[in-house]
Amino acid sequence: MDARQWLGLQPTHNPMRWYLPVTPGICSGLGTLFGGSALGAAIDVLERVAGRPVVWACAQYLNYTKPPSVVDLDVHIGAQGRTTTQARVLGQVGDTEIFTVNASLGSRDMPEEGQWVSPPDVPGPDECPPRELRFDPGNTIASRLEQRMALEAPGTGRTAFWTRMPELLEVSAASLAVLGDFVPMGLGQAVPTEINSNSLDNTLRVANLVPTRWVLVDIRIEAVARGFGHGHLYLWAEDGTLMGTASQSAMIRPWKWEG
């Protein structure tokens, strides 16, 4: 199964328009479309339309949507050069804008390469305990991810966990977008009170995709102020390769859960 199948993306007769049926399996525990699913869907569509890999993509989340709605994904190519494409995707349900994604795509044959950051020193996935959820995952996206806690240090702003998507055959930019939407989890670990949070945005930057069974999601919270939290996360392969980074801002509120 590839990312398109995992997300449930559907093509139309128009190559610049795709459909994303909103199902429980791509929704958060609150029953709304998971932000990472939205960004991942836009990235997959952009790469198919442009025929180039994503370098970076930034989603701004505007409204919620729940099953059984269908999101229309409309692709707009802003500029097409010899090696890069600048484009955006507008996600709508009817006349309501749900999210917008801006992105650059391309690849250049250059000899220069390097990696100047390192993953945290944590046990491997087989040595880490399963992540405990605060709710029954049911048929939500949480039920489709296997997660193992590698670093829990409440109050420090650092959290790390191993995760994998058992249904997927290989890592892609779209799958990293799904895994890159966990800064809100890190916010819950950083502050002393029980909170939940809603992402305002998510920016994924893709470095080097390599085969890996597990991905280490390394979350680093930088600040919480005025009711909002800000953080980055690093997406590491098992061999220590940095595959990508993500950054988010989120609105936080006291934890309330019914059901």
Features:
259 residues; Porin; 14% helix; globular; mainly beta
SS content category? mainly beta
Determine the CATH topology.
Answer: Porin
For the record, the CATH architecture stands as: Beta Barrel
- Helical coverage, percent range: 10-25%
Task: Tell me the total number of β-strands.
Answer: 13
Strand content: 35-45%
Terminal Cα separation, in Å? 32 Å
Over all CA atoms, what is the radius of gyration?
A: 18 Å
Q: Please tell me what the overall shape is.
A: globular
User: Major sheet: size, sense and barrel closure?
Assistant: 13 strands, antiparallel
Tally of separate domains: 1
Poorly predicted spans = none
H/I helix tally: 4
Supply the CATH class: Mainly Beta
Q: What is the H/E string? A: HEEHEEEEEEHHEEEEE
CATH superfamily heading:
Acyl-CoA thioesterase, double hotdog domain
What value does the average pLDDT take?
94
What is the strand and helix layout of this fold?
Blueprint: H1 3-7, E1 10-11, E2 17-21, H2 35-50, E3 54-61, E4 70-80, E5 84-93, E6 96-106, E7 146-153, E8 158-164, H3 173-179, H4 183-190, E9 195-199, E10 201-206, E11 215-225, E12 228-237, E13 242-254
Helix pairs in contact: 2-3
Could you explain the architecture of this structure?
- With 259 residues, the protein is mainly beta.
- It has a single domain, classed as Porin (Beta Barrel).
- It contains 4 helices and 13 strands.
- Strands 1, 2, 3, 4, 5, 6, 7, 8, 9, 10, 11, 12 and 13 form a 13-stranded antiparallel sheet that branches.
- A hairpin with a 4-residue loop joins strand 12 (228-237) and strand 13.
- Helix 2 packs antiparallel against helix 3 (173-179).
- It is globular and about 50 Å long.
